């Protein structure tokens, strides 16, 4: 019998509901419970795949090819769960299902309404994860209590709790307790209002997690307890931390997991937090910096590259280095900014995934610089495609080589639309999505880095390398070291005589976690550290570098 923790948020957005849900999941797993975490998103898009990363942040891709909310990345990084399509449900998807049923005549002449038809569909989506393998299902409801669009989701969890036996579900509400400097006081009123709003729609929270700058004094805790109708021990401080991976231990200090287990009437089990403690020791240990440039399109929107940033930090931890990220908007290198000056302090260059022409020529110039100056280079998806374009233009001499994403019919179409997508113009869900196997070539950098010959990685792309150009590119030294097992898709390219130059068509960042940094990121960061150290020696000897 799966038990439920429903997580709602109040007062304001960006309080870290996703991280709170992931951390509760991690703590339950540390007690040997098997968890799943699901995100319910109230927006009307069927999935975030069609949304701009400016607005919505990164689109996280699952093994089964779902384009999902970035919180699912946190869930996977904090717990053992492997997210699927079922773990992210949007209003758009729910309404689409209900409307399809209505068109089929499934409702037998009834008026189709938000209650019960939409709420029933939401409840069915939640209960799909109710399996013998899952002890606790954590369900995070996106948005903030008080939003019109989240009402059907809140109503659905209210009903679901009644459908379940007592003790099988709890409501955790995350709020904000601001510290007012002028009054030198933590203020509980926003929390009181937010809980009042929640109770007005029939949901009484069992636990209130209070995001705050400092620990809550007993007086504030008792006041919130009294006004929000919960026992004082169920009011928990969620104090700010300087690193997201410290949240589980912070929650454990406040007995969040003990209280959740008691409320869910789960049998008492000892928790083992040794892995989290060790991780936090590594985070706090002194680590030398390594400087990585990320040259892309959305430099002011770090949420657009959430998994990428995390993967680089994981690789830093694995190498006991402090990865410092230098965001550079690629367009500046088209407009004439000097690469040599911009890269003077840089130990490794990364070009991430992306869509659209903006800044592409600047990325190509950057890749040429990394290739010819022997600076470690990692190209991901678009970064790999542009590495091929750059090589075709500047190493092979195919003037005007390009991707057909950026030019209608380039003379040398090195990157072109996926064969199965030709003539498909619809945007939603029409990419090569999800996990695919890839065979690695013997003696390649890839096989050495992974330590195995077959891998599986997640994809999200509409364009691919045009294999017609393989022979000519190989003659000039481009190596195709990862191919799909059927030989159809180029998955990894490398070049010879370079300390570390690798482009991959897939997104390795989706499969990295703090306990198990992804091998490609580990390898790239290790090469960057080595490059930085060698550069320092050369500079010390008075040489001009790079
Ligand atoms: N725009 C490229 C494509 O669609 C790359 C996509 C990406 O980087 N995720 O193939």
Layout of helices and strands, plus pairs?
Elements: E1 3-9, H1 17-29, E2 35-41, H2 53-56, E3 60-61, E4 67-68, H3 71-78, E5 88-90, H4 91-104, H5 114-127, E6 136-141, H6 151-163, E7 169-176, E8 179-180, E9 185-186, H7 189-200, E10 207-212, H8 218-228, E11 235-239, H9 247-253, H10 256-263, H11 274-284, E12 288-296, H12 306-318, E13 321-329, H13 331-334, H14 339-342, E14 348-351, H15 360-372, E15 377-380, H16 382-396, E16 402-403, E17 413-417, E18 432-440, H17 445-450, E19 454-461, E20 463-465, H18 470-475, E21 478-483, E22 490-495, E23 501-504, H19 519-540
Parallel strand pairs: 1-6, 1-7, 2-5, 2-6, 7-10, 10-11, 12-13, 12-14, 14-15, 15-23, 16-17
Antiparallel strand pairs: 3-4, 8-9, 17-20, 18-19, 18-21, 21-22, 22-23
Helix pairs in contact: 1-3, 1-9, 4-5, 5-6, 12-19, 15-16
Glutamine (GLN) binds next to helix 16 and strand 19.
In short:
This protein is of the alpha/beta class. Helices cover 36% and strands 22% of the residues.
- Radius of gyration of CA atoms, rounded to a whole number: 25 Å
What separation lies between the terminal Cα atoms? Answer: 61 Å
* CATH topology tier name of the largest domain: Rossmann fold
Assign a percent range to the helix content: 25-40%
Provide the CATH architecture of the largest domain: 3-Layer(aba) Sandwich
CATH class of the largest domain: Alpha Beta
The count of helical stretches stands at 19
How many domains? The number is: 2
Number of strands: 23
β-strand percent reads 15-25%
**What is the SS-derived class?**
alpha/beta
Contiguous uncertain segments of 5+ residues: none
Query: What's the shape?
Result: globular
Give the CATH H-level superfamily of the largest domain.
P-loop containing nucleotide triphosphate hydrolases
Main sheet, how many strands, which sense, barrel? 9 strands, mixed
Q: Taking strands numbered 1, 2, ... along the chain, how are they ordered across the largest sheet?
A: 13-12-14-15-23-22-21-18-19
Bound molecules: glutamine
């Amino acid at each position: 019998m799966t038990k439920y923790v429903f997580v709602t948020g109040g007062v304001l957005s960006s309080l870290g509901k996703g991280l709170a849900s992931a951390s509760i999941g991690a703590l339950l797993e540390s007690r040997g419970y098997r968890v799943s975490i699901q995100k319910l998103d109230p927006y009307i898009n069927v999935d975030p795949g069609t949304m701009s990363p400016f607005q919505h942040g990164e689109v996280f891709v699952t093994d089964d090819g779902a384009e999902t909310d970035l919180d699912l990345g946190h869930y996977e990084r904090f717990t053992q769960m492997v997210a699927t399509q079922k773990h992210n449900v949007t209003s758009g998807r729910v309404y689409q299902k209900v409307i399809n049923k209505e068109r089929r005549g499934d409702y037998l002449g009834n008026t189709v309404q938000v209650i019960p038809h939409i709420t029933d569909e939401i409840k069915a989506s939640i209960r799909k994860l109710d399996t013998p393998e899952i002890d606790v299902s954590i369900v995070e409801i996106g948005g903030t209590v008080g939003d019109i669009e989240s009402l059907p989701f809140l109503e659905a969890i209210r009903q679901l709790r009644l459908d379940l036996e007592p003790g099988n579900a709890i409501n955790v509400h995350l709020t904000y307790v601001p510290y007012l400097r002028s009054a030198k006081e933590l203020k509980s009123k926003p929390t009181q209002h937010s809980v009042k709003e929640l109770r007005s729609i029939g949901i009484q929270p069992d636990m209130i997690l209070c995001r705050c700058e400092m620990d809550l004094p007993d007086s504030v805790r008792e006041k919130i307890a009294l006004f929000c109708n919960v026992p004082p021990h169920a009011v928990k401080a969620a104090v700010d931390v300087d690193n997201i991976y410290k949240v589980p231990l912070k929650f454990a200090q406040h007995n969040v997991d003990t209280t959740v287990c008691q409320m869910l009437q789960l049998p008492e089990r000892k928790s083992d937090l040794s892995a989290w403690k060790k991780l936090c020791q590594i985070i706090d240990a002194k680590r030398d910096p390594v400087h990585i440039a990320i040259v892309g399109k959305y430099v002011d929107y770090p949420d657009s590259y959430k998994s990428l940033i995390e993967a680089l930090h994981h690789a830093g931890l694995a190498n006991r280095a402090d990865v410092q990220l230098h965001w550079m908007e690629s367009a500046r290198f088209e407009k004439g900014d000097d690469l040599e000056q911009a890269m003077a302090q840089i130990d490794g260059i990364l070009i991430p995934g992306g869509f659209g022409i903006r800044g592409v020529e600047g990325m190509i110039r950057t890749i040429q610089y990394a290739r010819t100056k022997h600076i470690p280079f990692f190209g991901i998806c678009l970064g790999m495609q542009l590495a091929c374009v750059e090589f075709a233009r500047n190493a092979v001499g195919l003037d005007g080589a390009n991707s057909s994403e950026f030019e209608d019919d380039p003379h040398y179409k090195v990157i072109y639309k996926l064969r199965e997508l030709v003539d498909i113009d619809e945007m939603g869900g029409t990419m090569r999505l999800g996990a695919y196997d890839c065979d690695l070539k013997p003696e390649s950098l890839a096989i050495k880095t992974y330590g195995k010959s077959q891998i599986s990685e997640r994809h999200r792309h509409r364009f691919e390398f045009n294999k017609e150009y393989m022979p000519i590119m190989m003659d000039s030294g481009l190596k195709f070291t990862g191919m799909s097992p059927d030989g159809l898709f180029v998955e990894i390219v490398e070049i010879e005589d370079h300390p570390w130059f690798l482009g991959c068509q897939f997104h390795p960042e989706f499969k990295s976690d703090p306990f198990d940094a992804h091998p490609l990121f580990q390898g790239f960061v290790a090469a960057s550290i080595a490059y930085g150290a060698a550069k320092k020696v050369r500079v010390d000897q008075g040489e001009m570098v790079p």
